[in-house]
Write the structure tokens for this entry.
Amino acid sequence: NAGVMQNPRHLVRRRGQEARLRCSPVKGHSHVYWYRQLPEEGLKFMVYLQKENIIDESGMPKERFSAEFPKEGPSILRIQQVVRGDSAAYFCASSPWVTASTDTQYFGPGTRLTVL
Amino acid sequence: DQQVKQNSPSLSVQEGRISILNCDYTNSMFDYFLWYKKYPAEGPTFLISISSIKDKNEDGRFTVFLNKSAKHLSLHIVPSQPGDSAVYFCAARVDQGGSEKLVFGKGTKLTVNP
């Protein structure tokens, strides 16, 4: 998986708590994507970020979810006041640039969020 | 509204035979199609892609065919090996104003029996 790191790998939260998911892209990659996979479903696009900018957040729920990719440090996906329906696997992918070749989104191992 | 569909949740084949995984799509704006392989508790790994202007791309044992008029693509694996057992996701790229997001199907679980 080309070096994308995600932590934690597993996260358990009670309803109403906050969840913070971290993604460190491949070194030198400046584009980060977050996807969510619900049970028995495919991955669904949530948000696309470049350093310090949100480029496309059309897949993000309007409330409780936010994402950032600061100049220094990992990208963070933050879910406030989690509900049971937020239980899913959250995958981060990174790419070095937006090009005509599309084999450059490298995925991390995912964070499995369980909301009790 | 599911724009990328993989209608077979599972497929079982014998080692050495051909595996054919199918995928249908509805959005004519997709410009690239990709196949990802996923093992349990791991992230998807890129396998092979094809541009919407091509009809075939081959890489070793893996070949992807695109029928644009039918909005259908397929992944052929030949010969199949037990290590190919995994979930295979079909994905399509849509470029909207500089945002290259991927739209995934639900996946097909391939089992290759020794």
Remarks:
- The mean pLDDT of chain B is 93.
- The two ends of chain B are 38 Å apart (CA to CA).
- Residues 41 and 88 of chain B are 14 Å apart (CA to CA).
- Chain B touches chain A at residues 4, 6, 32, 34, 36, 41-46, 49, 89, 91, 93, 96-107 (CB under 8 Å).
